[in-house]
Amino acid sequence: MNAVARRLIPLSRIFQSRATPAAGNFSGSPAPANPLAPAADGFFLQWLCFCGVLIFAAFLAWRANVWGTLVDADPTGITMSIIAVFIFSTLWVGLRAWRLMRERQALDAWVLASRPQFGPAQAPAGVAGAVHDYFTALLEKSRRHDYENSQLTEVLAERLHGPSEAAWWVNGIQIKLGLLGKVIGFSILALDISNMQAFDASQSASLLKTLTGGLGIALLATAVGLVANMLLGAQLVRMDRCGDGVLGDALEFAETRLARLTRQDLA
Length: 267
What we know:
- By secondary structure, this protein is mostly helical.
- The chain has one domain.
- Helices cover 75% and strands 0% of the residues.
- It is built from 7 helices and no strands.
- It has helices at residues 2-14, 42-63, 66-73, 78-113, 130-143, 150-194, 204-266.
- It is elongated and about 90 Å long.
- The N and C termini lie far apart (63 Å).
């Protein structure tokens, strides 16, 4: 039992979270050995796990012939269109997660480079992004003794949160496509009923199959649209919260540590 525990202890240490210097540690206290801690990769790793669950669920649906049923039950193709929009939107969220991870790592690099033991505040090498441009502009303005940063702050907030506005619009498109499928399905159902000349009991099975075709389109499109909207909405909410965290930490660092160091350098 003790041997097993000794083998598991090193594995548990891998998954222990370490505080990043950008997340509230601006007081000049000693930093962990790795300043670019794995917490910067949190959202991107969560997105990868989420995609893994989706791929596994899609595999199970394929084994159960769910995809074939969706294609056969919806000749209009609206259901598959909703799924295609969801797939491309999920991939876009993954790209944004990667970029936000890079922004967090750039913020960590600035925190490390602005410590007193590294001399006057200066831009770190090898980083790029909205946070890096924001801090570089602040340094340039401080050299001119200009400390009004409201416009630069608005630019940073726009670059971190602007792309998500279009993503929320696309998320709403999925529900609208589902409602469009419902309208088309009920329209097909109404047309089938209006084309009935007479009711023949011997043809009741084929008649019911024809009538339920439009109803199936309406229900499937609505259900797929709602599920896709909820799944993509969960990703977008997490993405916005990650962007808020980067923005909040960047503003805190700019207004406390970076501002104090630039004033000391210019004194």
